[in-house]
Design a protein that fits this description.
2 copies of one chain form a homodimer. Chain A has about 500 residues and is α/β, with parallel strands linked by helices. The first copy, chain A, has 20 helices and 10 strands. Chain A has a 5-stranded parallel sheet, with helices on both faces. In chain A, α1 runs parallel beside α10 and α12 packs across α20.
Chain lengths: ~500, ~500
Amino acid sequence: MLELLDLDRKISKTALERTFPDMKTRLGDCQRAVRAAGVPVVIVFEGWDAAGKGTIINHLAQALDPRGFKVHPVVAATEAERARPWMWRFWNALPAAGNFAIFDRSWYGRVLRDRVEEAVHEGQWRQAYEEVEEFERQLADSGVVLVKFWLHVGRGEQKRRFKRIRQDPATAWRVGKQERRQHRKYKEWLVAVEEMLQRTDRPHAPWTVVEATQERFVRMKVFETVLRAVDAELDRRRREPPPSRQPMPEPPAAPPAQPTILDRVDLKQSLTRPEYEKQLGALQERLFQLEHRLYTARVPAVIVYEGWDAAGKGGNIRRLTQGLDPRGYEVVPIGVPTTEELAHHYLWRFWRQVPKAGHIAIFDRSWYGRVLVERVEGLSTEAEWRRAFTEVNQFEHQLVEFGTAVVKFWLHIDQEEQLRRFQERQGNSHRQWKITGEDWRNRDKWKQYSVAVVEMLERTSTTYAPWTILEADCKLHARVKALRTVADALERALDRA
Amino acid sequence: MLELLDLDRKISKTALERTFPDMKTRLGDCQRAVRAAGVPVVIVFEGWDAAGKGTIINHLAQALDPRGFKVHPVVAATEAERARPWMWRFWNALPAAGNFAIFDRSWYGRVLRDRVEEAVHEGQWRQAYEEVEEFERQLADSGVVLVKFWLHVGRGEQKRRFKRIRQDPATAWRVGKQERRQHRKYKEWLVAVEEMLQRTDRPHAPWTVVEATQERFVRMKVFETVLRAVDAELDRRRREPPPSRQPMPEPPAAPPAQPTILDRVDLKQSLTRPEYEKQLGALQERLFQLEHRLYTARVPAVIVYEGWDAAGKGGNIRRLTQGLDPRGYEVVPIGVPTTEELAHHYLWRFWRQVPKAGHIAIFDRSWYGRVLVERVEGLSTEAEWRRAFTEVNQFEHQLVEFGTAVVKFWLHIDQEEQLRRFQERQGNSHRQWKITGEDWRNRDKWKQYSVAVVEMLERTSTTYAPWTILEADCKLHARVKALRTVADALERALDRA
């Protein structure tokens, strides 16, 4: 496909001067509309070395209000980035609603440079394709406008440009080994580029190939494309009815359905205190050893606690961390999202908390809020919480692929036990703060939550990141089971490493 | 002083069991009071290797609600940290109002380990003392509670602990070269520690030396000390009248005072368009070259734009960046602070934006908002904006010490020119959005702003970070002067590097 491009496409200086000022004004207007409508815009520039990515990005930067965009040059991964799954840096860089993020190179590096230079093996770049497609689909689903450019120059043109860059002492360093290697391997690159363009050209994330021999032509085509893409999304939003967010109705009582996975939980399981104390000490010692082994092996771990109010998450987490070295773990409490978090894809705040290699992150509530409280209370649309099942599976898959041990707990108690605990808290002056009107309101929706919990467990318990239900009427039993489950999972992850 | 400590101080298990549960409860209550009062708390743990910092931090972590604290292990600086002034990482880690930050080692590393191991020269660690003292004073001034612990064990005890740690395969790696070196050089360390404790023990940031032979004793002393320090601050806040924030009154008209620095600005300076275009092109080319030299020499630059509304900041910045490579600079627009930013020391959000070595950050408005809009509108107390003069000087000094080129512009126009521009904007449909009611309101306070601007220029124009006034009635002149000033400053910074 690329060899058929007319790389001589040009535009005269007069034509540019006639139309470009108006285009810049339109982009300014467009940016204000984007801000007003709360649309996040992601613009990706890929292309041959020396194809002029920097120049066109600077033209966009000149036309945009700096309060609404950020340029992300994607250079070699930093220490912090190498210590996380490779998509981490891109999730972190996502724009808030109403903002532009401009990527100078992007997540396509893995299927281009890393592939051609054999920095990753075939399995890795093939899997990268799947992850990239999933990533872009998730962005588009959440309302992000995605515009992707491939800046194309011929081999001869690239050679001429390298020569010019090398002649200027200020820029000579920019043509290094890597750039010369690309030039030598132009043909191998071409194969990879064509495959990339074909595989990842989607209606929600289309590629625009730009004949980049002439800077003026590039400028016109890029500006036009961005304007059209954004206008289309603004148009779509104007036409579409605002999404409906409804609290979940109470499920019908009869007929008595099949017992669910929650009904089958044996809440009678318990442990005597002497037995508990013996096992707890041994498990804490084992976890301390494992924490240090994780650190030296650079294996990360993610432990998720979800459960009914008053099921004992806090106390369970404390027993888990009691014997650990605080330099190796972090408890991440998940509360109501901040304004900044609400302005991003809902997984953004969790990606930011992904532990680095060798460290443990313990989530007190998690990304499952999407399919629990947000679903039940109608804080998300049905489309949003429905696709979240796939999104969290994919998220956890990326963690596991990186070598992370993922453990997920559902702390289960029955309604009577919860009532008993609520009442006990209210009678204790030091624990009163732990119980609020919201807890009582959640309790009224026990049936709705049950439906949501069962569906969550069924749809997100995967081979690589299974749920463990903790029978938590007896806290001692739940704690010991949690610690043992974590220890076993860490050991398995270490074995895999 | 340290040799007189009774390192055998112990507490019986029964005594601990009698008092400790109550202490934990009190710390929980204290944390909720801290949150309610919006007090940030910083707890620093320094001490001998193997003195038990991890263990005591874990005890605190057990007693605190994870929603309100974060542990910061201060290990070797990361790539990102090495690319900024050394205090950057600590500013970034400061807690929001109502939160605890617990530092496992801290900013004292430079006057201890780096000093004893000769990783920094004498000038550096001596200067570090000054910066640390200024840092802690600034934190205390802004209402942060600072609690600093030195965990002390004797040389023999340290030896016994190293032996025990090495015997356990899980922890053996923790006694490495560095730890053995500390043990060998125990005496040299002791000298540095004593000096540190003496020099930096201040009423607002006191040290507590903890006899750390027995873990139980450490726990009691640390918990007690934290509780006392926080209670004292809560008490102080309850007693003190709420700070008064008053808009600045209009300054008296007569008697005609000495002409100020602003009165002396020659606004007649101008440039013809042909002359402008010639000079602009040459300057942009020169800046392009300098940007690349900065990058290879790893010299950062900070450029600050302040000025009257409609003085032409935006257009000036665009001419500055027009010829630059977008990978090397970032425009940082400073608007109304977010809730998160308001919950931190006001310099926190600017520290987060400090450019990394080799990069240029252009601030469209800046930390000077404290002594301009916040002063005039009464958004800060008088004490706050008054001490800001010293605080920003100190901030900029740290940037310059790191090798940063710091350029600061005040874009000056007169009242008539501003009126003309406001009216012109209102008459142009594409520029109307640029002018709001707030602009008109600011204009009404021209006299107040003039007083604030003059004082700002006089008090924060330093040898290392001087202000440049841009005579901006003629935009062309102001642009060319800005670009030339930046180019000259970058050259000087490169010469120094």
